[in-house]
């Protein structure tokens, strides 16, 4: 089983214990396993918000049948939309075909949705950047191949409670799974479980970057906060107990920094020591290095995906595909992505290889075994 725990972190004690509970347990996806306890301290981080982005798209979930089959997990970074018409979306936000194929061909595809999707609501007063797309963006996300989206971040409630609830409904109506926010505390913290090819997948999402009024309460919808250590521990315990593989997605780090902090590295190691198998990070809006720690993967920041970063470094991104079998990470492939406007494109040749060399260089301090195929412009990480 795979457990995704999305944490948008900025500082505090993360106490995670693991187990299981189903939010959207697709009929064709189910199973179980393990238990864990994690105590991780992250420093409080103050982040300047990054400028807007634009739209997204996703695919139907893979059918599951035979157990113990190889499983591919695809992960990308930040996705954000603005209210534009459908023709604009297809021209400027729809990923290029080479990218769409990678998203659709994976068994499970994940991204961080950093905007509301609604025709209602108004921008939160005083917030510098507020993002909101519409129903067409949920359809785009589905069409290009996404399966699971984190809504635990500092933009999901940019247009108020009504827009957040619309977002969750639009995702569900388009057979997209969301985690990390909800109408009630139970909804926001509840894990999601899927079974893919005999591997159980659980997904959790939390946020530590919490603008005023964003957190879920007994009387208001909102985002699951990583600062609520008791609820986080209970949710993670439920997910972990039923997981074959635990994947923790963390929205954390310093914006525009290409290097994770020592506290992030320590936190990632502690999470893995306690049973996490894969950690996927995002929030810095630039790509950071990848580490293999005790045979487990940490992608500290996946960068942007469908997003208008406003700087050239933020346009250089990646698409990560992990190959698993028997509940273990076997290898991973990194594909170079360049964002044209807000539209992600796979790049090749010397340009693509140059981007991959930058990722390999940032991974060097972790002694990550990276190999670049200069013909296909693909970086491979083996895990033997």
Could you explain how this protein is built, in words?
- The protein has 384 residues and is of the alpha/beta class.
- The protein contains 9 helices and 23 strands.
- Strands 4, 5, 8, 9, 18, 19, 20, 21, 22 and 23 form a 10-stranded mixed beta sheet that branches. Strands 11-12-1-14-15-17-16 form a 7-stranded mixed beta sheet. It has a two-stranded antiparallel ribbon with strand order 2-3.
- The protein is globular, with a radius of gyration of 18 Å.
- The two termini are 21 Å apart.
- 61% of the residues are buried.
Radius of gyration, whole Å? 18 Å
Low-confidence stretches: 8-40, 44-66
Helix tally? Answer: 9
Total strand segments: 23
Distance between the termini: 21 Å
Beta-strand proportion: 25-35%
Shape label: globular
Q: Supply the helix-strand structural class.
A: alpha/beta
Q: Percent range for helical residues?
A: 10-25%
Secondary structure: elements and pairs:
Blueprint (H helix, E strand, L loop, with lengths): L1 E7 L3 E7 L17 E7 L28 E9 L6 H7 L4 H9 L2 E6 L2 E2 L14 E2 L1 H10 L3 E3 L9 H14 L3 E3 L1 E2 L2 H5 L2 E5 L2 E9 L14 E2 L5 H12 L4 E7 L10 H12 L4 E5 L7 E4 L2 E4 L4 E3 L5 H4 E10 L2 E13 L2 E4 L2 H15 L6 E4 L4 E5 L2
Parallel strand pairs: 1-12, 1-14, 4-5, 4-18, 5-8, 6-7, 8-9, 14-15, 15-17
Antiparallel strand pairs: 2-3, 4-19, 10-13, 11-12, 16-17, 19-20, 20-21, 20-23, 22-23
